[in-house]
Design goal:
The chain is built from nine helices and eleven strands. The chain is α+β, with helices and mostly antiparallel strands. The protein has a single domain (about 15-240), classed as Cyclic phosphodiesterase (Cyclic Phosphodiesterase, Chain: A), CATH 3.90.1140.
C-alpha cells in the first residue's frame, strides 16, 4: 500500500503513533471488525453497526465505544509520542525496516474470550512467531519513542501491575510486552458493571458475527502504522507494511 506523502503536510505533527496488526483493507476480517466497532479507521468514517435480536443498538454502541477510538486492531507497539530527536519522516522507513527484518507471515487461529473485564479475540494456542514479532516491534521502535515522564510512570505503576510488569513498564514504557504480551483484538470496553445477561448476549453476538474468523483464523501478514492526531482523538490507519510471505494455511 503506497504511502500518501501529503497526508502529514496538511496538519501538525500527530500526537501519538502505534504499531498495530490490522487485517488487510477491504478484507472480510477488516470489514467485520470495523463494522462491529462502528468506525473505519482508514476512511475515518462512522459505520452502521450490526443489529442483534437480544442487544439494543444503544447498549451495543455504548459497549463498543472505548475500542472504537483505537480502530480495529491488535497492539504490537503501544501508542507513543516521538522523542525530540526523531522526525516524523523517519517513521515510514523505520516501519518498513521492521517489517523486512522480522518473522515471515504466519497463520493464527483465534478464539473468543473474556480477557480481564472486556471481550476479545485472542490466539487459540501459543504462537512463538507472534511473540517474536511483537517483541521485535517493541525493540525496533523503542528508540524513536519519547520516554514516559516520572509522573506518568508513577501513575501507571500503581495500576495493579505485577513486579515483572512494573519492571517492563520502566524499561519499555508499557507493562504488557515481552513475556507479558498477549495479542488481542478488542471487542468491547469494560464489562465490569454490565449485567450478566447483557454480557451473555454480547458474547453470543460476537460468536455469531465473528464466526468466519473463529473458524478460519487470521493471516498475520503485516504491521500497520496508526496515528492519533490529537490527544483523545480517534486513531487512524496510516500505512501497512507487508511481512515476507510464508505458507499461511
Amino acid at each position: 500500500m503506497p504511502f500518501v506523502t501529503g497526508i502529514f503536510q496538511l496538519m501538525s505533527t500527530p500526537f501519538r503513533h502505534a504499531a498495530y496488526f490490522a487485517p488487510a483493507l477491504q478484507s472480510q476480517a477488516w470489514d467485520l471488525g470495523s463494522q462491529w466497532l462502528g468506525r473505519c479507521a482508514h476512511q475515518m468514517t462512522p459505520l452502521q453497526q450490526p443489529q442483534f435480536d437480544n442487544l439494543s443498538s444503544e447498549v451495543f454502541e455504548k459497549l463498543t465505544r472505548a475500542p472504537r477510538l483505537y480502530g480495529w486492531h491488535a497492539t504490537l507497539k503501544a501508542p507513543f509520542e516521538l522523542n525530540s530527536n526523531t522526525k516524523l519522516e523517519e517513521l515510514q522507513p523505520a516501519f518498513r525496516q521492521l517489517a523486512h527484518n522480522t518473522v515471515s507471515a504466519f497463520h493464527l487461529p483465534l478464539k473468543l474470550v473474556e480477557m480481564g473485564d472486556f471481550l476479545a479475540l485472542v490466539p487459540s494456542h501459543p504462537s512463538p512467531d507472534l511473540q517474536k514479532f511483537a517483541e521485535h516491534c517493541v525493540r525496533q521502535l523503542h528508540a524513536l519513542a519519547l520516554p514516559l515522564s516520572e509522573t506518568e510512570l508513577q501513575r501507571r505503576t500503581g495500576a495493579g501491575l505485577t513486579a515483572r510488569q512494573t519492571a517492563l513498564l520502566h524499561a519499555w514504557a508499557y507493562p504488557f510486552v515481552m513475556d507479558q504480551f498477549q495479542f488481542h483484538l478488542t471487542l468491547s470496553g469494560s464489562l465490569r458493571n454490565v449485567e450478566s445477561h447483557v454480557k451473555k448476549n454480547l458474547k453470543a453476538a460476537a460468536q455469531e458475527w465473528f464466526a468466519p474468523l473463529l473458524e478460519h483464523g487470521l493471516d498475520i501478514d503485516a504491521v500497520t502504522w496508526f496515528s492519533q492526531d490529537q490527544k483523545n482523538g480517534d486513531f487512524r490507519w496510516v500505512e501497512s507494511f507487508e511481512l515476507s510471505t510464508s505458507n499461511c494455511a
